[in-house]
Amino acid sequence: MKIMFIAFFAIAVIAVGANLILKQAGFSSKNSTSGAAVRLDN
Predict the structure, then answer these.
(1) What is the CA radius of gyration of the chain?
(2) Cα dist. 33→17, 23, 28, 30, 41 in Å?
(3) Residue 35: phi, psi to the nearest 5?
(4) Terminal-to-terminal C-alpha distance of the chain
(5) E strand or H helix at 30, and its extent?
């Protein structure tokens, strides 16, 4: 049971870390496909 809780915690840490890293890297489709003349936030 202890190993399962450690695994759940590791999955949560990896998921949150990956989310933060990808947000900082700018890998969203909004950032990569829109230019300065495009208004997406209306």
Answers:
(1) 17
(2) 24, 15, 9, 6, 14
(3) -105, -170
(4) 49
(5) helix 29-33
Using a cut of 0.90, tell me whether the model's pTM lies above it: no
With beta carbons less than 8 A apart as the criterion, state whether 40 and 34 touch.
yes
* CA-closest candidate to residue 4, choices 12, 36, 33: 12
- Which tens digits make up the pLDDT trace of 1-42? 999 999 999 999 999 999 899 888 777 676 667 667 766 665
Tokens of 18: 């990956």
* Structure tokens belonging to residue 35: 């230019």
d(CA 15, CA 32) in angstroms, rounded, equals: 22
